[in-house]
Amino acid sequence: MVEDTRARSFGTVAVDYDRFRPGYPAEALRWALAGAGAVADVVDLAAGTGLLTRGLRALGHQVTPVEPDPAMRARLDTAVPGTTALAGSAEAVPLPDASADAVLVGQAYHWFDRERAHVEIARVLRPDGIFAAIWNIRDETVGWVAELGRIAQMGESISDLTVKVTTFGAAFGPVELGRFTHRTTVTADEVLGLMRTRSHWLVAAPQQRQRMDRELRELFATHPDLAGRATVELPYQTLVFRARRR
Question: What span, in angstroms and rounded, lies between the C-alpha atoms of 46 and 50?
Fold first, then answer.
C-alpha cells in the first residue's frame, strides 16, 4: 500500500534525516513529561535517528529508543553514543509490562495502527504513566512557509492534527494539547535537504522530484522575504498531545 511504502521510505535517507530534521524544544518535552519525575524511564517509540532521544537525555531522563527500520537504528546508535535502539514497533514493543513511566513518539504517530498501538503502549506503561505524541509543524501563517508546504506537500497541518488526534483509546484519560514555538536557521540548500527527507519526495516519481526541487529553488530566488539572503529562520509550532494511562 502507498502509506506502507511511505512509512518505510525514511531508512534510505537516514543520515540526511538526522542532519536536516529539527529537534524538539525543551519546554515541549518538559510539558509532555510533567509529573513523570525528575528522572523518568521513557520509551522513545518509532525513534528514527534519535532526535527525540537526544532531547530527552539532555533533560536527564533514561531513554529506551524503539525503531523498526534497521538503517534508522544504525544511525541512532552512531548519533547517540551509549544508546542502543531496540528493534520493534508501536504494535509490538519489545519491553515488559508496566516498565515505563512514559512513552513518547515524535513525528510518527500518524503511521501507527492506532487501535493495536494504544493497547501495546498501555501495556508498557505503569499506572498513571504518560503517553504523548509530538509533532514539529511548520508555521504556515508565514507566507513563504505556506508556499514551501504547497511545493513540497510536506504532510500534516496544525488543523489536521487537532481534528484527528482526540483520543488514545479506552486505556487513557482525556487528551491534553500543548503548543510551543521554535525556529531553526537554515539555508536554501538545507531546506532542500529537509524536503528530500519527506515521504512525499521519497516516493515521488523522478519528474515530480525535479519539479519540487526547481520550484523550491525558484521560491528562494524570487520571494521578497527570501531573495538575496544567505539564511532565513524557519518557524515551527510544536504540538504535544498528552494523556495518562488510567
Answer: 9
Q: For 109, which DSSP code?
A: G
- For residue 163, give the nearest of 112, 244, 239 by alpha carbon: 239
Mean pLDDT computed over 60-71: 97
Q: Which three cell numbers stand for residue 94?
A: 519489545
pLDDT at 133: 97
pTM of this prediction exceeds 0.90: yes
CA dist., res. 113 & res. 216, Å (int):
33
Q: Answer for the pair 131, 212: CB distance below 8 angstroms, yes or no.
A: no
User: CA–CA separation, 193 vs 167, rounded Å?
Assistant: 34
Beta-strand relationship, 100-106 and 41-45: parallel
Distances (CA, A) of 209 to 153, 195, 196: 11, 10, 9
CA 42, CA 83: separation in Å to the nearest integer? Answer: 13
In angstroms, rounded to a whole number, what is the distance separating the alpha carbons of residues 205 and 99? 43
The DSSP bridge partners found for residue 41 are 62
